[in-house]
Amino acid sequence: MSPKNAFYAQSGGVTAVINASACGLIETARQHPDKIGKVYAGHNGIVGALSEELIDTSLESCEDIAALKHTPAGAFGSCRYKLHNLEENKAEYERLIEVFKAHNIGYFFYNGGGDSQDTAYKVSQISEKMGYPITCVGIPKTVDNDLPFTDNCPGFGSVAKYVAVSIKEAALDIASMCNSSTKVFIMEVMGRHAGWIAAAGGLAAEKEGDAPHIILFPEIAFDREQFLARVEQCVKQYGYCVVVASEGAQYEDGRFLADSGNKDAFGHTQLGGVAPTLATMIKHSLGYKYHWAVADYLQRAARHVASATDVEQAYAMGKAAIEFALAGRNAVMPIIVRESDKPYSWRVGEAPLSQVANQEKKMPIHFIKDNGYAITDSCREYLSPLIQGEDYPPYVNGLPHYVTLKNQLVEKKLRTEFKFD
Amino acid sequence: MSPKNAFYAQSGGVTAVINASACGLIETARQHPDKIGKVYAGHNGIVGALSEELIDTSLESCEDIAALKHTPAGAFGSCRYKLHNLEENKAEYERLIEVFKAHNIGYFFYNGGGDSQDTAYKVSQISEKMGYPITCVGIPKTVDNDLPFTDNCPGFGSVAKYVAVSIKEAALDIASMCNSSTKVFIMEVMGRHAGWIAAAGGLAAEKEGDAPHIILFPEIAFDREQFLARVEQCVKQYGYCVVVASEGAQYEDGRFLADSGNKDAFGHTQLGGVAPTLATMIKHSLGYKYHWAVADYLQRAARHVASATDVEQAYAMGKAAIEFALAGRNAVMPIIVRESDKPYSWRVGEAPLSQVANQEKKMPIHFIKDNGYAITDSCREYLSPLIQGEDYPPYVNGLPHYVTLKNQLVEKKLRTEFKFD
């Protein structure tokens, strides 16, 4: 009997290292041809499974698969699509089983954040509830660092490094200019509900007085007067003020500082524009000359300044997913277990998908200083190991050399097209 | 007779490599103790000369001076302060001479862009018009790449590399997501009157269809309908659309797309917000989901991804400034002369300050494709050598190790304070 094939898909917002997980998974699967046939990657995530658009990764060279380790974003395409509950839309699951059967798929690997692990969990129930034998393993990924159980999420360490490096550099810039020009610099970073990424900006401050002088966390209600007073105090004391603002920064009543009014496919409000909102507030109230930056995609795609620790862990999660599957584990997700801070050491652990799905890990409140504007030493101890090490991509002609795969689709075997809602 | 001391100052917006010029200047000066005494750096540029705040660089260790080569921004502080004409404000020049005399200063080095070279030129006239013997050499610097005579400006190559790398990375991100999510990504970059930095984004496109699909140059009048049609066409053809927008993008009547209404010390309108303006336009007219980034200071401070060519040239300009001064050249500026594109080679040349000052080098119109949205092959040939090579700073604890100098001020010798306007 030929071994079962595997389905792998990337889901949700991509990161600088999600392809490193794909690399770990495919390279490890290739070492077990007796147990795992081909690895099919979903074209645009789970949507590729439903629409029977399966990429045959066996057609990619070893060199190209290895190059995934240094290539940011989702090499097979990602999606923001959440499966319904089995009770709500049985057709989705029947379709998945149809596709899995047609392509002899016995393993399902889903690489994503909280919403995606929810999807992975639902697929894992197919075995039990619909009698189709499938081994389902989630692979953690999210720049938001908000998955439970795992000490940290692959993707976060690199965005943390990007933000800390950027703040350190921009702070030198404004420090040079503040005597006769710009007094306030604001950098807006991602993190819808949790302040992990904003907190990472705090790593740039190595001694008292260093930038950033103010971090705005979603966890701490924004108080306009207090904020403006703090900006003024910093400008008077240090000559300038550097602010890191989470896109999720919000007023006491839960209103985001900058709510664009748009919503994404999950019904989440689409954010953007905290930095200009704050800049205008400062200009009008204090009159300071300002500059602001919104890093947006640049921060999560910045493979050029990725954390080596992050790359290593992302790879390890992909590798572990195969190992878990081969060990017959179903409905689980490999996690990162921290064994010690100094020296930093970690190992691969395991969490049940039933408990991972739809849980958000918030910043512990003791990671935020009492004034609400800075990180504590324990937060620094937690964050610092995650940005350690550089792992530069190769450069050709002055630019990083990122791989573009062939992404050849497997011939469709089903006669029907799936109708998306 | 003890040799004359030198005054060096940084001026205007700082860059990732202006300190590399300082490094080249100070290291070279130290090799000629018989001809150049101490190098005094102006605390916050020319303002430091007027206020007699002189930093004694001889107190900095060789290691720290060497570290300037990999440290972004202005290590001695910069300023936006333009000297008046000799006729308008003779007191400024009399004060300079007073300070120069008090500290035995016979060399004046000014590191900056167009406005700063104007200041350097005015100082150079002191010899002739006011009888104080001083050798004055400008050192080119500006991310805007708009100085005349020199093939390119130190500082530009690194911001060009940052923008090209960032666009390449963000384009992979949106390509991964466009099937079910974001369709348009807009990155706003610096460049008030010239599209050099925006053009550099074009280097990310290595083959037909690659991002960026649209570049908005200040040189080409913005046409809303044509722009929206092009965005729609790209989304239909490629699945997504990446836009690089210069902060200086403007309508036919010269109105900037996003005019904040603020002005800087030179009377220039302070810009920012083209990206959100375009995003809103696209959302309202085409309904596409968008993301946007404004790099602002991040782009010009990004020493972590500096161009090795740029670092080398910045260092060479500082070194050449000393060599010119020692050769008795006055009122000149070292420039970069391109000798060939492929293989790229260049040498140090010389331009007269009288002709450099207040001239802006625009993008040649044949560098922009006929459709107004892309760069031509000749533009690519010009730009490509400038981003070649990586020159990573050392990292400690996951962050670049940038030097902070002692910056000890020389004891004041004058009894009076200078009164700024």
Automatic annotation (TrEMBL), chains A, B:
Q: Where does diphosphate bind?
A: 13
* Role: Catalyzes the phosphorylation of D-fructose 6-phosphate, the first committing step of glycolysis. Uses inorganic phosphate (PPi) as phosphoryl donor instead of ATP like common ATP-dependent phosphofructokinases (ATP-PFKs), which renders the reaction reversible, and can thus function both in glycolysis and gluconeogenesis. Consistently, PPi-PFK can replace the enzymes of both the forward (ATP-PFK) and reverse (fructose-bisphosphatase (FBPase)) reactions.
Please identify the protein, giving its name as recorded: Pyrophosphate--fructose 6-phosphate 1-phosphotransferase
Which species is the source of this protein? Answer: Aestuariirhabdus litorea
Q: Top-level EC class, please?
A: transferase
Q: Does the keyword Ion transport apply?
A: no
Give the pathway listed in the UniProt entry for this protein: Carbohydrate degradation; glycolysis; D-glyceraldehyde 3-phosphate and glycerone phosphate from D-glucose: step 3/4
Q: What does the entry list under GO cellular component?
A: cytoplasm
Keyword Magnesium set for record: yes
The family classification in the record reads:
Belongs to the phosphofructokinase type A (PFKA) family. PPi-dependent PFK group II subfamily. Clade 'B2' sub-subfamily.
Site annotation (Important for catalytic activity and substrate specificity) points to: 115
Where on the tree of life does the source sit, at the highest rank?
Answer: Bacteria
Matching Gene3D superfamilies: 3.40.50.450, Phosphofructokinase domain
Q: Which GO terms describe its molecular function?
A: 6-phosphofructokinase activity; diphosphate-fructose-6-phosphate 1-phosphotransferase activity; metal ion binding
Residues given in the record as substrate binding sites: 142-144, 190-192, 247, 297-300
The UniProt entry, under InterPro entries, shows: ATP_PFK, PFKA, Phosphofructokinase_dom, PKF_sf, PPi-PFK
**Phosphofructokinase domain span:** 9-324
Pfam families tied to this protein: PFK
Keywords from the named record: Cytoplasm, Glycolysis, Kinase, Magnesium, Metal-binding, Transferase
Q: How does it assemble?
A: Homodimer.
Active-site residue numbers: 144 (proton acceptor)
EC numbers listed for it are: 2.7.1.90
Activity regulation summary: Non-allosteric.
What is one GO biological process annotated to this record?
Answer: fructose 6-phosphate metabolic process
Listed under catalytic activity are: beta-D-fructose 6-phosphate + diphosphate = beta-D-fructose 1,6-bisphosphate + phosphate + H(+)
Which residues are marked as site: Important for catalytic activity? 141
